[in-house]
Amino acid sequence: MLIDLEAIDAGVLPAEVAVSAVTLAELAAGPHATTDLDERSRRQDRLQRAEAAFDPLPFDGSCARAYGRVFAAVVAAGRKPRGPGAVDLLVAATAVAAQLPLYTRNVEDFRGLDGVVEVVGVRRN
Fold this sequence. Notes:
The chain is 46% helix and 5% strand. It is mainly alpha-helical and 125 residues long. It has a two-stranded parallel ribbon.
C-alpha cells in the first residue's frame, strides 16, 4: 500500500499512518530489482519520500514473538510461509506487536490471520 499511498483515498485510512522497518527494507530493495533506468529512478524517489515521511516501527523482540503467532496462523490455514510472502508476515507481526490494524492493497497476502491481526483492504482511486 505504501507504494500507492498518494493514490488511495485518505478517507479510508486512519488519521495516523505508520510503516514498518520491514516495509522500508522492501522499498530499499526495489531500485535494485529492476534494470529499467526510469523505473529505478521512480523506485528510488518513492523510497526517499517514504524515508522522509515516516519514522518506521522497528522489528524488535516483540515483533519476533508475534511472528510465531502469525506463522502458526498461516500454517493452520494451509499456507506455506516461504519466499516473498514470508516478508509480508514480518510486516503482519509488526502490526500485531504494535496492536495496530494492517492496511494493504493485497489482502490475499495476509489470508489466515483472522483473529491475529485486523487486515483492512484498500484500493487505489
